[in-house]
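Dear support,

We are seeing what looks like truncated structure output for some complexes. This example has two components. We would appreciate it if you could run it in full and send us the complete token output so we can diff it against ours.
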Amino acid sequence: MRLGWLRALPRRLWGGPAAPELCRSLCQRPARVPSEGSDSAEGTPKPRRAPSRDPAEGDTRGGDTSGGDASGGDASGGDTSGGDASGGDAPKPPLSRLRSRHERTHGDPGGSGGRADPGAAFEAALRELSRAPPGRGGRLALVEAALAALPALGAERSLGAYNALLRLLPRGAWVPRGPVQRLLFPFPRQQECGLRLLEQMERYGVMPDAETQFLLLGVFGPRSRPMRKLQRMQFWLPRLRHLDPHPQLPRPLPPGLEAARLGLQRMACDPGAVISVIQAPVPDSGEDEGSIQPFIVSCQSPDQRELLAQHGPARPVFVEGPFPLWLRGTLLKYFVLRGDPLPPELRDPPPDPERSFYFPLHLELELERGPWDEDGFAVDRAEEGPVLALCVPGGAARRCLARWIAALQEQNPALAATPVIFRLQPAAEPPPRARLGQGSPPGPGPEPPEGRGAGRREPRERRGIKGCADGRGCR
Amino acid sequence: MALAVMLLNGASFHSGCCRRKVFLSSLGPLLSNSKLYSSYRRPGAEPEKKLSWQNADFSFKKSIDHLKTQLSLLKKETQDYLKGPGGNPLSQHLLEQTRVLWQFRSQEDLNKWVISSDVEIGGKSKVYIKLGRNNQAALLYGTLNTEVPRDGETKYSGYCSMRSKPEVGSFNRKKYYDWSNFNSLYLRVRGDGRPWMVNIYTDPYFSHQKDDLYSYFMFTRGGPYWEEITIPFSKFFLSSRGRVQDNQHPVWLDKVRTLGFTIGDKVDGPFQLEIDFIGLLNDRAHKEKFAYEAYDKNTPV
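Here is the complete output from our reference environment:
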């Protein structure tokens, strides 16, 4: 069949050999195809395609774009000259520039000082790899394997590592030539590899920079799927990045005592709360911090001290816990010193015995407020006793808590006369069998209301996270 | 004439469609065990062998009971309709600035919610819900496990969620929440420092939008104090199957079907969230209509 009318179509519609050239010129790299001499000066050598095609890099272009296909095959096969061995000798200005930028942008606030950055080490390894490439193909498989290995190497949050991976991919060979090829989802495995890389960046919250955009533009061309994904990330990541209203935690989180201090700062809503170290850890740093003597950190605000002073010795106070607190990826256990909820006759000030119901001394008329200004919720809020102090122990709970209460008694003399009841829950037990899709948990049942001895404890109430359903008596 | 016949045909076809839909929804209690509404099938799982009507229970007594229940519901709806919008007098409807949607004080309140986790896709997370101390709040707790099921297809795992059951009227008619008088969601919660996602599901007209969710985040502080979180509805963004969509629009507040909470912060370990009540608030200081740009974002590069 003669398709003479095909030739009459504008040449740009089918794409021509100019598209890779255009991308390469965008990347400011010398062209590879015509002259082998210029190829040797190339910084990051392009992977050459093996004669027997690697399945991971398989070319899946259809035959209907044959004009572009043939020239593309030529273009990718044209660089079989030995530019790779000598390519490593040339200095790589974009690499060095990139590294410096990476160190600038990815500097961790907490811990980039003394330790070597795993991202930088990974980048150096990739640089070595690009200097002496293992073979002609397999870059796609290499990038995918590296993506899977990044979390294990600790470089999953380093932007430079991702950029270095993108730099391994060839420029221009996977750019569709013309709108028809672009419509047909060209190079699906290659584009999906790019998408996977971007998705992993998104998963670990790495914000792509202009370098990433530049590299993706060279590898996949404009309006490709990785480019679209990058645009979406550039749009959404800055919007959703700083939504957390709480003070930002350092990354990585410091271990031990410092983490406990940060946790107490986060939990105490009062800026005047005093965080005091009751017992310092004995090896006070390093891996085995607190192995001989664990730390105890306590937190009490002036208001809480006042509440504790007003709390009469007739009613007991309770030590409850442990409750979990997550600081990004670190689990802390904290304990609460809590009073009973006050009975209503103590909560409100007593009415004036002299007052008259018929001739009140002051009127509470709010003439400027209409019936549409009622902003309260018609609900009885969950009530609990006042929190009197907080504690994060570093080791075994019972001993630490006794020490904590002793230290609190020094600061609050009223506590010495007050009975303290320890209402601790056993260590986390796995709750019974998972039953999904139903509102009721497996077998909690109503608690027996009263009259349990202190030592007796039914196994039924030794479950999970909150032990006692009723207010008291469980010791 | 031909046009009129065509119109008539169209009308009858349309009404027939609707009637079939009503018939299907009235079959709901019969087909309660079937998986008509869940389209997800785990990779590697066998397709359902039994036909859907084979699970139906055609007992006469059950249908009479069902009819009684539905008729009493219909009676209550009629009375509410005569009283005013939403069963409240008109003055309250016009003047209310806050509304309590859900509070957790008894087991019936917990039964209005459905909990689920990635066990559905083969994961290993666990989630439970129960009443808190003194029957005062709902305690949603469990363990998050990000271990990916080994079926060769699933890439991510590790989520737990809690979702309100969609409201239905008598004879299983769909009912929607109309929240258009309010502009903020109000939650009184106590968490453990982990972030949660708040999802609003609005009933779509087309079935290809059935996975659309409007989401925003709820960052709990942790600690022994209750916190009161206000989330304006203008902040909710549209996502479908976990992907944020390019074309955004404000949430349809008059077609809200369910509200849900999801945890999936990629951290293995126990979590817990206590919810006291969930309400709506008309925050008159909040003037924002929509927080995200609504223009076309796929401009040529």
